[in-house]
Amino acid sequence: MPRFDKHIFICQNKREESHPRGSCLAKGSNEVTEQFRKRLKELGLNSKIRANSSGCLDACEFGTTIVVYPGQIWYGGVTKEDVEEIIQSHVINNIPVDRLIIKDKRFLKNG
Ligand code: FES
User: Would you say 87 and 39 are in contact if contact means Cβ atoms under 8 Å apart?
Assistant: First the structure.
């Protein structure tokens, strides 16, 4: 039996404001992480679903970037307000949230 059913990795990388690639932390990834942890706990899912802070996921231009396993689904531009939809649709019902999926072929499984 796997330790967790799903892992959500949320980029927490921070760069100088002037850096051309930007960074997810500057785009609010800390709030996104806190909201995932809060809601997973409130829903009693935190023993099965893990929300982890991560370093740079190398998708900086799409930040805030998160990736969900299994399935390796990449989401970009994620805000605190998107967290509930990701939990309800993807985490609970296994239906990825298409509008937030990074459409760049480097991040698509069959891209
Ligand atoms: S800074 Fe978040 S993916 Fe690189």
Answer: yes
